[in-house]
Amino acid sequence: MKHLLTAAALDAAAATAVLDTADGLKHALLGREVHKLPTLRGRTVITMFYENSTRTRVSFEIAGKWMSADVVNVSAGGSSVGKGESLRDTALTLSAAGADCVIIRHPASGAAHRLAGWLRDTGTHVVNAGDGMHEHPTQALLDAATLRERLGGIDGRRIAIVGDVRHSRVARSNVHLLTALGAELVVVAPPTLLPTGLAEWGVPGLRVTHDLDAELPTVDAVMMLRVQAERMHGGFFPSAREYSIAYGLSERRMDLLPDHAVVLHPGPMLRGMEIASAVADSPRSAITAQVRNGVHVRMAVLYHLLAAEEDRS
């Protein structure tokens, strides 16, 4: 694997290999007083985040450090980007400085792909940590890892993705990845928060509905999405209260779920609007597990990019 730019590029075998590696790394760290493996010793991982992030940035940094890589964080405000340097020149500079892997989050869809193109003739790998409204492949992988952990498998499971699908790179990556792993997906959203090109995603069997209550009794998992107000220009729904009434996961709605069903959210959560606090903090919730699994999944991604071929040779 040269880069990880999109979940759509992962077939079932490739995704399962990453998930199995994540499980192996998790078990390798169990019982260790110091969470440290020598796997990436001597490697340099650079994170470039042009948008705010807590979970993704921190988990990539921890993942690199737990594998003994040297991790360097670059932000737009503290780099030459603030002086007007282009993304291309910044990327080439970091590669020339010795970056083995560049992890990028950027507000422009396609930014990670452009970066990979500019670094094509170098030895630097690129990971997409979220590009605009396009994709967030490692989030989809950690969601899949959490579903495997809580449900025992993904193939044949029915999963609802609920909320602001229009602006969600998390939704797009999960639709592609979970479908590849055999899940049956239903997207639940108000008409104004559905992407106009949903049919062009090319996902067979993807259902779309506006009735959340009708879907909850038959799903194995419900994935709530963040309402991305920072990407909205204009009114997409009347008010936060009306959104919550129609599409928020309340305690009443949680009771509609089958006993085994699990609740996910990529965070940060808008408690009381997208999800009730009683639901987010309930035993059904796997939100904290998603964060924990995110570290192991991102360790696995770095392993497959930087070390897997060496281990096979």
UniProtKB/TrEMBL annotation:
GO molecular function: amino acid binding; aspartate carbamoyltransferase activity
Catalysed transformations (reactions): carbamoyl phosphate + L-aspartate = N-carbamoyl-L-aspartate + phosphate + H(+)
The Aspartate/ornithine carbamoyltransferase Asp/Orn-binding domain, residue ranges: 156-305
HAMAP family referenced in this protein's UniProt entry, alphabetically: Asp_carb_tr
Sequence ranges assigned to domain Aspartate/ornithine carbamoyltransferase carbamoyl-P binding in this UniProt record: 2-149
Its job: Catalyzes the condensation of carbamoyl phosphate and aspartate to form carbamoyl aspartate and inorganic phosphate, the committed step in the de novo pyrimidine nucleotide biosynthesis pathway.
Listed name of the protein: Aspartate carbamoyltransferase
Amino acids binding L-aspartate: 83, 169, 226
Lineage of source species: Bacteria, Bacillati, Actinomycetota, Actinomycetes, Pseudonocardiales
Record gene name: pyrB
Gene Ontology annotations of biological process type: 'de novo' pyrimidine nucleobase biosynthetic process; 'de novo' UMP biosynthetic process; amino acid metabolic process
Pathway involvement of the protein, from the record: Pyrimidine metabolism; UMP biosynthesis via de novo pathway; (S)-dihydroorotate from bicarbonate: step 2/3
Entry keyword annotation includes Transferase: yes
Enzyme's top EC category: transferase
Record-listed E.C. numbers: 2.1.3.2
Assembly information from the UniProt record: Heterododecamer (2C3:3R2) of six catalytic PyrB chains organized as two trimers (C3), and six regulatory PyrI chains organized as three dimers (R2).
Binding-site list for carbamoyl phosphate: 55-56, 105, 136, 139, 267-268
Organism encoding this protein: Labedaea rhizosphaerae
Family per similarity comment: Belongs to the aspartate/ornithine carbamoyltransferase superfamily. ATCase family.
PANTHER family reported in the protein's UniProt record: ASPARTATE CARBAMOYLTRANSFERASE, ORNITHINE CARBAMOYLTRANSFERASE, MITOCHONDRIAL
Superkingdom assignment: Bacteria
Annotated keywords: Pyrimidine biosynthesis, Transferase
Gene Ontology annotations for the cellular component aspect, listed alphabetically: cytosol
InterPro entries per UniProt: Asp/Orn_carbamoyltranf_P-bd, Asp/Orn_carbamoylTrfase, Asp/Orn_carbamoylTrfase_sf, Asp_carbamoyltransf, Asp_carbamoyltransf_Asp/Orn-bd
